[in-house]
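FIELD: query
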Amino acid sequence: MFLAPTAAGRRWALVAGAAVITGALVTGCSGGGTSASGPASSDTINYALPANFTPNWILPIGTAAHLNTNNASISQAVWEPLIAYDGSTGKVGWNKDNSLATDAKFAADSKSVTITLGQRHWSDGKPITSRDVEFWFNLVKANKADWASYSPGKAPDNWTSFKTVDDTHFTITFDKAYNQQWMLANELSMIRTIPQHAWDKTGDSGAVSDLDRTAAGAKQVWTYLNNAAKKISGYATDPLWKTVSGPYTIKSFSTAGRVELTANAKYDGGGKANIKNVNLLPFTTTEAEENALRAGTVDYGYINASDLGQEASFKAKGYSVKPWSGWAITYMPYNFNNPSMGPVFKQLYARQAIQMSVDQTTLSKVVFNGSAVSTYGPIPQGQESSFVSDDQKNNPYPFDTAKAKKLLTDHGWAEQGGTMVCNEPGTGADQCGAGVDKGTKFEMQVLSQSGSTVTDNMMSALQSSFAKTGIKFGIKTAPVNSVLSQAGQCKSGDANCSWQLSFFGTAGSWYFPAYPSGDSLFASGGGSNFGSYSNPAVDKLITETTTSSSDEAVQNYSAALAKDLPVIWLPEPDYQISVVRNGLGGFAQDSLANFHPAMWKWTK
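FIELD: result
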């Protein structure tokens, strides 16, 4: 959902903004293929974006409201990453064909790294140099609080200096020795090389200078670029976005979410586009997208897990069905600072009762038609790894609504009219806990993704199981963009702190980089710690995952959060059940939930 990074994979595989449009395909979703028997043109492909997941950000520096895999994939196709660390080749690692850097050498003491740039050029002919990387570095340093990938103590805090060696070599020094795998996969891969000679200014008519080299100047440039990025209708025409380094440029970008990419004729890297024109098509519902597949107007789309029984019908129309699994977790964040339910959420026993009311096994089987795996902690469990602790694997809080109800009654709650009410306020062992007033009802509301039958079915199932525990669960829906914008970090007295739980959709999972540390998600003040969870002991464990090269550090972190429940753990579904036109190949479905249009090719 991704809700996700972006931070080299740290992000939600989802969205961010418009009003709900019900019914059918969004206007303009045509072109590039009218028959399921084959593409109408070998130089065009139509790719279906997830329902209600409209792209809305072009600047290759993410902010909290724009953590969207679609945004990240588009920007990486236009501005090639410094280090493309992803699963585009079928195995998560550094794909140097899709990167501006050709090498990264760590010092023997693991306290610095020297990176080499290839002999590359911007689309206007200017060389790509270390100065362009420094420009990004300075902007993020001066505006870290607004950068969605920021977690206190991590990048850029732990990058103490940037030193240009020459035009194609630079050195970043760290504040201490770090796990090299973590630093490369999770931090260095966040760096985006952006055109200093075109963007280092404060207005459309302003002259380009070295404004970024002072904190005040970097803040002004940041404001200018972010304001420009808010003007979606200008993405294809604003000269600012014409200076690119990737295999594609923006041909059109509508506020409704339709995006047209066309090959960058000036691209001089190793990941050249195989298909000239890529149409990214928005849909309001999965059903509308499936109708487009049946009509043959989509080359690369998806179906609901509940529709896997229709696989044969899509194969008969010339498609292949390919589940797209992810290196991810799915959950609902609590808002620990919500003025009414925050004090309840802060009680571990209350979170335990909530988690024991979630029947992940049945949800995976019935709602997801077997295409999801149960997840009991912060490490992905859909793929084998050495990172998952035994505590997480063994599920500390199995589904048991009777036990969940007893946990509440043992702590001063009594059922009244089907809903638990706090009768014994106070901090004793048999009382409701600090800040929970007498008469408080255990009523919580989720703001959830609209437009998805699968999501609706899961919310209804949760509502039913929570009711058995005596927990009232209200459901409000909105487009994922709106859910993201309304469910951010806040303080109890803030006007925007009314949300209690948020859910970014059944495709809205958090997709990790190769190394699944939780610094952004669950560290105090983490850039994507939406619910303001804070536990000093967990902060220490997270720090150890970034400095120790032992898997034990990650396993300890896994065990701690499986028990402490910073969020409601939910089944992790496949990112999507892809339906791909026969003859389209050349790619692997990236487990980090990026799509890589330059790698797509028509093989027949």
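FIELD: remark
Confidence is low (pLDDT under 50) at residues 1-37.
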